[in-house]
Amino acid sequence: MDYRRRSFIKKFTLAGVTFSLPHWAQAAEQLIADADTDAGQHIVTISLDPEPAVLSAFANTGGTTVLVSPKVLEGLLEYDHQLNPAAQLATDWSISDDGLVYDFQLRPDVRWHDGTAFTAQDVAFSLQVAKKYHPRGANTFAQLNDIEVITDHQIRLHLDQPAPYLILALSAAETPILPAHLYELDTALKNPLNNAPIGTGPYRFKEWQQGSHIIYERNDDYWQEGLPEVDQLIFRVLPDSSSRLNGLQNGQIDIGPRNPIPLSEIPLIEKSAHLDFTTQGFEDNANIAMLEFNLDNPLMAEIDIRRAIAHALNREQIKNIAFYGYAEPVIAPISKRNFPDFHLEIENPYPFDVDKANHILDALGYKRQSDGHRFTLNLHANPFTPGYKRTAAYVRSALARIGIQAILHDEDPGSFIRSVYNNRDFDITVSGVSTMFDPTVGLQRVYYSKSFDPEVPFSNATHYHNPEVDRLLEAAAIEHDREKRAQLFKDFQKIVLDEIPSIPLVQLSNVIVYHTRVEGFADTAAGLRGNLAGLRIIS
Fold this sequence. Notes:
Helices cover about 25% and strands about 20% of the residues.
């Protein structure tokens, strides 16, 4: 059966509840009816939540922006599940022994969607744009001091100091290559092509009806012969998880990115005849749930209070209660799953022990009052992932067992950022830290004292400051020898595990839910955030 050809039902049910068709679905019904006129087309529909702010990812790291952008705007490289580089717009590359010179041979006979030839000038311009506008660009390209265009298809990068993570920062989602002939550096953020991109990718932008859908069409002149096999990608904006689940079940949605349904509903997928799920395609984006302390608070500045709180937390319970088993307990902040040689293998210095936690607080002189509480803390939770809220609810219960009253604040994303980062009006918070494709890029900002800036969210929320940690992180950022770099990262982890400015809890296992008629969307470390040139329909 061709599930794309079904008429879109006017009402649908989930667990006995009936939902009326909302405005986005009314638009989608007409969209699918129009698609029926193109008999024989291969059409794949992907859910989106939230709707992206822009369609070009050079200055925006929003999850859905970096999902849609790479289909049109490609990168120099892509990466396998072990984060080994593979060719995209670059066909060959080399790094000098001292780590200061990068040479790239570029793919010939590539054309932009407007017919203009792709050249090294486009790459040089795009790296300048990324360094100036990308939220991580100033750090990622901090050591880049010169871009030398050697020929139309050869480019050389000169660095002041080694940047061992740089070779992993050149994917389409992280550093998209823009058409230099259609952009100016100073006005790049205002260019209308940011919402109607022209790229080299396997798909061409066709339409964005805000609040409803985005349509990409097959690029018949794509440089990789025979690809893509899919004629049309339709991204549907579906803000409601029950709507996404029903869309997957009735065949109107082919792929749901990154936990599109409540993890508690995964057993439904396991029983389905035509749906499946995978945790692959997130290897470049290791998410760890973490409890962070506001060290500006005198109570939280007491290391023994932090250690008592650590003893009160059971990571296995967090895994099962907050993430329904789709997580892995972690002790050290650098992911073992993604960076086994950088990870510090260590026994938990603060194993789950409620009696010990209570003994520590008693010895500190924080006696229980008549209401059973020793003191009260304000607890906040990152609202971007439901599992963080559930983790915070667990933390509140765990702290109650050791006499700490935690007042849990339920906030929208803007309020959370203001409370935790801008105003610093919190005591403890549950949030997510992504190691990304390298600890220097993803994790350093959490512990590096120079990353503390109340105007910058998702940075050093704890206001942690340790000169030796700063030194180790700075040294690791420019260490070209991987074994030496690994030791620097391990030494860093030993210190932060001892001083405990934050508590790593679990590493998330993100889930893609998909119709079994599609494949080829999780073949790289970026998964659905790749260009999807190899996406195909198999039945």
